[in-house]
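User: Last request for today: this protein with SN-glycerol-1-phosphate, please.
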Amino acid sequence: MQGLYKNIVLASAKGEKNLAVLIDPDNMKVENVSNFISKVNQSIATHIFVGGSEVEEHLTENLVIEIKKHTKLPIILFPGDVIQITEKADGILFLSLISGRNPDYLIGKHVEAVSRLKQTNLELIPTGYILIENGKETSVQRISKTQPMQRNAVQKIVDTAKAGELLGMKLIYLEAGSGATHAIEPEIISKVKQELKIPLIVGGGIRTKKEMESAYKAGADTVVIGTAFEQDEGFFDELLS
Ligand code: 1GP
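Assistant: Here's the final one, the structure of the complex with SN-glycerol-1-phosphate:
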């Protein structure tokens, strides 16, 4: 599938908001996919992201094949590692962890990924990924061996996002980490958004409709929610009310 990024840009230009449901292959059994995806289909979700920090080889591919059987929503890989690349998805966030200073996550993994990517038709979306501290250590921090940015270093976060855009990245993703205690503050979202010409994704620790709406209001074009849906599928209905 191509045109994923074009649609994200169009939605952003029109002020329409996207909601990506994040599915971690480690936390989703293939036999539960049909039920879960039927909830996703009836919800306000616009995208499905698939990925996790530590996922065994082939688990992602099997999961994506199963999800595809049940939905027409675009499936975008949000990979923690190169082994999560599968041609069965529609696109991939080609992530650079620009909040960190570990060369593996700035260029090393990308070089490793090339031979796999060349065997796919995935739409590749270069994405500047910015991890912001949320009060506890996240798996991104542990695995990437990088430090998240401090929440009060707002100008540095803004400049990091802008540097990503100037380097040619097509999206900026502000991440508090899966299961974060605190979602990204609206002040950070709005300051980053004011500086950017490219669409902004926000995720990590969003558990209520109010938090989702406040992220949109502050300027998030796409909100990503994983844990809240995993823990309570009733959250899909809450978002509709
Ligand atoms: C994590 O931003 C995503 O990478 C989603 O986080 O699981 O906390 O919703 P949650």
